[in-house]
Amino acid sequence: MWKPEWEAACNHTATCGLTGSAAFFSSIPGSFVMVNGPLWCYFYAMKYVDDLDETARNRFYCTQPGQESLVYGTEKDLVKGFEMIQQMGKFDRVFIQSNCSISLVGDDVAGIAASQDLPWPVYAADSGGLKGDFAKGYQQAFLRVMDEMKPLSTVKHTVNVLGLSLSDLKGKENALEIKRLLEMSGLTVNAIPGAGSTWEEIMNMPSVELNIVVRPELSEKAAKRMETDFHVPYIETGLPAGTEVTMKWLEKIKEILPSMNLSKAAKEAADLKRHLTHLGGGMQSLWGQLWFDEILVSAWPSDASAIAETVRGEWADTGKLIVHQQEPSEMKIPAADIIRTVRADDAEINEDYKEWQGGLLLASSHETTRLGRLGKKARFIPVFRPVYEEMLADATPLYGFAGAARLFERVFNAGIAEKRKD
After folding, report:
1. Alpha-carbon 339 to chain mean position
2. Where are the domains of the chain?
């Protein structure tokens, strides 16, 4: 791994591969995650997941192997871990994740588990920074689970949604809203792996008519493999945001599944747009056009694209819109004036911060901190983790029609504050 990618876990928004794998594995009800590595890796992954899932800490364990384990192997540590898990409660399956240093030892984790006559199946994966960042860890976990799938007969009008995670900002809420939109349009959502789907639902994934990939950066490899192994086609849609982008998102899926009925969605979109236009018109009569000198969006490429297109396309104008993608992507973002990729374009990204003169920041606390160190200010709306400046406790998603009014409200209020110079 080249040096800038290794540094990603500490210097950028993305976390390490072990955290991404843990987020995917722990999202499956009845699962238990055992980190075969030091306490630092365990606490980081567990806390990242636990911040949005209060049950996570009850389903994590750390082997804490000593120095001698790096020489003689971690079998004793693993056996002790199996004993502890059996004392902690009843679980359906256990996922063992070896961190960077333990991966180099080369233990046959699956073989060790098989020799122990355990009451649940054990699945092993090597992860950590040497295996990449969150996205790569998530993909690795997804592909490992796919090893257990079998071919199934196709069930019409059923879909899977790929690329969501309970560890996303508003992850659970986004998954529920996307499911609602699809079911309102006449489809049955079989599974949303990574966002709370059961093991049975995930194993049933080969039966669907279509895989809907909302974040290729997290799930494109899995979609391609399902197409090859199980002949399930997929479509890369990105994420639905606002009213217009959400309707275009549904229409794109309907091109593949023409049996969809979008009448209810179209009415909801029209009613919502009429309502927001009315509210916005009243406020613009007091404050003028919604304008920001600059807008900076920093998130996964799919998130950044949906948010940028919605904010600039539906609500606000700006002199310059910059997108900082947290993963490499060939995704087109017409609303953006500048698109950069973290780790690949770090020098240019640094210049964007130095030249920042104020405006709207849709990003995470990494970006607010970086601007703060330069003595610069921004109107901040959190759309990506981590978020330290605000408590986000309600059940409103970021995406779909349910998230449109909240995002509109936040953007408009940021514009008012900018004009007042609050």
Report:
1. 20
2. 3-146, 158-256, 289-390
